[in-house]
Amino acid sequence: MLDPQSLIESFGALAVLGVALILFIETATILGSFLPGDSLIFILGIALSSTLNFPIWLAVPIVIASAIAGSQVGYWVGTKVGPALFKNRKKTFFFNEDTITRSHAIIERYGPRAIVLARFIPVLRALVPMLVGIMGMDSKKYLRYNIIGAVLWGGCLLVLGWSLGNLQIVKDNLELWVIGFVVVSSLPFPIEILRDYLKRRKAKKL
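Below the sequence we write its predicted structure tokens.
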């Protein structure tokens, strides 16, 4: 996986725009799923609080807009070419009707929350928008939850990194903080699955 800190340093003064481009690619295409979105946002926030001469109030909407735009492209691809792509392509892990069926079941169970929660899981960030497009979710409804997810994922995580960036304990243990952050940021979806499981188990006992 690419080192997020090295990426940001390589962008220099254009770090915010560079990160925005990477987030767009990561959320727009499955091929961009290897990119380090979560840690990249967090470290960008830290850099904005210390080394980068770029206002946080401008960086936040840029990051959010790139995340929204990327997922909208994924959704659009799903609505326009998804059905033919899945129907005619040789069966693989991503491109097969079983994947659509399982993903449909997940989205039906968790509703629009799945769109928001998928933001915090690599691969799902790009896969869910396309699958939602294939399933034919209303475009206005998808845009609404796409915006919510982008704000919680891109905006809040960026501000979190910016808020913690000046703490000496973060500067001295950056790698540990990034690893811990990535683990914590990946918890919403598993927690939601556990909550739903316990809820259904309780319902069966009644």
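Residues 4-205 form one domain.
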